[in-house]
Amino acid sequence: MALPTTMRAAMLLAPREVVVETVPVPRPGPGEVLVEVTTALTCGTELKSYRQGHRLFTPPWPLGHEFVGYVAALGEGVNSVTVGERVVAANSAPCDSCDFCRIGRTNLCRELPALLLRGAFADYVLLSAPIVAHNLFRAPAGVPDQTLAFLEPFACVVLGEQEADIRPGESVVVVGGTGPIGLLFVQLFRLRGASPLIAIGRKPHRLELARRLGATSVIQANSGDLATSVLAETGGVDVVVEITGIPSLIEQAVAMAKPGGRVLLFGGSPAGATAALDLARVHYDALTVRGVFHHTPRTVRRALELLASGAIDVASLVSDRLPLEETAEAMRRFDEGELKLAIAPRGRPPAV
Ligand SMILES: [Zn+2]
Ligand SMILES: [Zn+2]
Q1: Which CATH superfamily is domain 6-150+314-344 in?
Q2: How many angstroms separate the alpha carbon of residue 278 from the centre of ligand 1?
Q3: Is pLDDT of 351 > 50?
Q4: pTM more than 0.85
Q5: Which member of 95, 144, 156, 272 has the lowest number of beta carbons within 10 Å of its beta carbon?
Q6: Which segment of 93-97, 306-310, 328-332, 343-347 scores lowest on mean pLDDT?
Q7: Statement: residue 224 has pLDDT above 90
Q8: What's the CA gap between 41 and 344, in Å, rounded?
Q9: Higher pLDDT, 57 or 233
C-alpha cells in the first residue's frame, strides 16, 4: 500500500503549548525504518521539556519516544524486519565509534543527543539506522502494544537495577517510588527478592498502588524527616534509589544507607544543582553514591524479555488512552500528576 504524503504529528511549540500539525511523512533512507505508530506513552523526561523547554529546544519540537507500531516502509539495505510486522524499538542506539561505545559504556555515547528518537506522537515515526541495527525488535506475539511501549523507560530501570546489584534479602528504599519509574523499580526489586522494600511517595492512593505492586511498606513523603523514618524502621538499608533528582531528597537518600550501602541517583537534577554529602560517612561507611543514566542494548533486550514474560504489571501505570488529536490534553493531565497516558494514533482502542 502506498504511503500517504502527509500525517499528523504532535509538536511542542513553547512550554505547555502542544499542537497537532500536518507534516510530511518521512521517507526512510538507507538503513532506516518507518513505523506506523499504534501506541505511544507520555514520559517524565519529556515532561521537563514540556514545562520549561529544553537547552536544545528549537520549536517545533516533535513529542513522543516510547512507542509500538507496524513497519510501514524500509530503507535500502534493511532486512531484519518486513513491512507489516509489529515492532518495538528503544529511543536511541550507540554510535559504535566514540570512546564510550568502544569500551561498552554505550549509555554514555557521545552521539546520544543527536541519536535520540523524537516524534512518536504521530501517525508515523522514522527510526535511524543505528536504532534499526541495535534496538529494533519484532513484537513478541500476544504481548499488548501498551506493555511493549514501556521498553525504553523499563530498559533504564533495568540498568539501574543492574547497577544496584542487589542480592535476595537486601533492603531497598525507592525515593519517588510512586511515579511510573518508581513503580517499575518496586516491581523489579520485588522480583529480585528485596526485603524490606520501601516506597516513598506523596500521594496516598499511589502508595497503595506501590504496596499492591510489591512494596513491603510505604512512607508518605510529607510525614517529616524521611531518613529518620527509614532508619527507625530498618536501621539503614542496603540500596537507595533516588528518582526525584531533588537535592534535599538526595541528601536524605544518602542518610538512609547503611554501611556498605549503594545510593543510586536515577533522577536527573537541574544543571548546577549541588547537595551536601557527609564525607566521613561516605568514607568510613564505604558508601557508593552512583549516577545512573539511560540504557544499553543489553538492558533493552533484558527489558523486552521481562515485559514479554508478563512479570511486570504496566497496565496499572497507565491512567488513560487518548487519540492523537488530544495529545495536548494528555500532556496537561500528565503534568497535573496522572500516571502515564497512552496516545493512540489509530483512534481510541478499548480502555485499559
Ligand atoms: Zn521516556
Ligand atoms: Zn558512541
Answers
A1: Medium-chain alcohol dehydrogenases, catalytic domain (3.90.180.10)
A2: 33
A3: no
A4: yes
A5: 272
A6: 343-347
A7: no
A8: 9
A9: 233
**146 alpha carbon to ligand 1 midpoint, in Å?**
14
Q: What per-residue string of b and e applies to 114-148 under the rule 16 or more CB within 10 Å gives b? A: ebbbbbbbbbbbbbbbbbbbbbbbebeeebebbbb
Q: How far does the centroid of ligand 2 lie from the alpha carbon of residue 101, in Å?
A: 4
3 state SS of 37: strand
Domain ranges of the chain: 6-150+314-344, 163-291
- Ligand closest to Cα of 110 equals 2
Whole-number Å distance, alpha carbon 284 to ligand 1 midpoint, is 37
CA of 100 to the centre of ligand 1 (A): 22
3-state helix, strand, coil in the chain (%, to 5): 35, 25, 40
Least confident range of 63-67, 110-114, 145-149: 110-114
Q: Is 163 left (phi over 0), alpha (psi -120 to 50) or beta?
A: alpha
- What is the per-residue pLDDT for 223? 66
Cα–Cα distance measured from residue 83 to residue 283, given in angstroms and rounded to the nearest whole number: 56
Q: Which amino acid does the sequence have at 246? A: I
Is pLDDT at 57 greater than 60 in this prediction?
Answer: yes
| Ligand nearest to the Cα of 155, by number | 1
**Of the bound ligands, which one is closest to the alpha carbon of residue 98?**
2
Q: How far is the centre of ligand 1, averaged over its atoms, from the C-alpha of 169 (Å)?
A: 30
For residue 48, give the ligand nearest its CA: 1
Record: fold of 163-291: Rossmann fold (3.40.50)
What region does 315 belong to: left with phi over 0, alpha with psi -120 to 50, or beta?
Answer: alpha
Which-ligand-closest: CA of 47?
1
Number of alpha carbons in the 13 Å side-chain half-sphere of residue 156: 26
